Amino acid sequence: MSSTHPLIEALDARVARWTQTRRDLHAHPELAFEENRTADVVARSLRAAGVEVHEGIGRTGVVGVLRNGSGRGAIGLRADMDALPMTEQNTFAHRSTHPGRMHGCGHDGHTAMLLAAAEYLAETRGFDGTVYFIFQPAEEGMGGAPAMIADGLFERFPMQAVFGLHNWPGLPVGQMAVHTGPAMACSDSIDITIDGRGAHAAMPHLGADPVLAGAAIVQSLQSIVSRNVPPVECGVVSITQFNAGEAYNVIPQSATLRGTARAFTPEVRDQLEAGIARVVQGVAAAHDVTASTTYRRGYPPTLNSESEAAFCATVAREVFGDGSVHTNYPPSMGAEDFAYMLQEKPGCYVWLGNGGGPDAASDPAHAEGGGCMLHNPRYDFNDRIIPLGVAYWTRLVERWLEG
After folding, report:
1. What predicted TM-score, i.e. pTM, was given to this entire model?
2. Average pLDDT for 37-61
């Protein structure tokens, strides 16, 4: 890793202590809305740095407030705190001490980096205005962001814009991806129930087969993306569960299908929802069965605002160098509840390279967990990127709140 900004070298001397905090959080993972120990670590660390602390926002969320000078500008920085309900397979000393819970997405690293940035900014105070450090619970599917918003996040802490950061395995250390517009997709759930007429498997003409109809529905749903969504847009419809029948020689009475739909834009999302209902009804009628569809909207697409994305790219180039900032990096069909914050405020969600990829095994400093994508039982956050994230947060604040 080559340091492209002197701030990174200045921060390197503090990495050992911040790494200790990160590994402590990794060893004590907590699930959505149960981040009591994590929130306590955050609150104590902020207070020790001289940052004003507000707890219990969105149940277990914490907001730190740091003011300097007389500037009226305000910026929000967000980190997620929760872990995943999965069993860790790593063997290093800081592995999870709680069976069935694991920091498999790097939220321990995000929390540690934002705490470190708060500490550094409180010490150096190279800005004029107000910084809100947002430590959010329950990102992993439970909607901690809307919980904080409903609890008055943006009314109590009025900021002009809000920014998020996520580590990204496969993107080299020292690099950052900044998207204009879509960064992550929506995450919607599909439930389809097919009701036919049960019969002896040797006498299918006496029934109406929901399994055959279900198989046809699974295939036909793929026509929505291939034939209804414009080729320059993106969408995914995946059926991941097909449940029917109990015996070899019985055509069942009913079948259920479940799956997910993903899109980057509200328009394509609407197309997917309408198209799924239309296809299910049409195929069901063709097979002489009845069917019902429940489409549940989850996290919306994560859409970065144009001017804030440009601002982040400028700051990232300053910190990492021109050739290390990707503005055309492919977005992800994964989902992120920071999207709710971006529905309320302008802002930008960026990816910080976590390393890994094909050459991870040759990196002894990050051999275990370094080659894994997020949500893998052998994943681990790369502590080498802590000063990079802190440098990015610091310069983002200083540039946004220049006197």
Report:
1. 0.91
2. 98
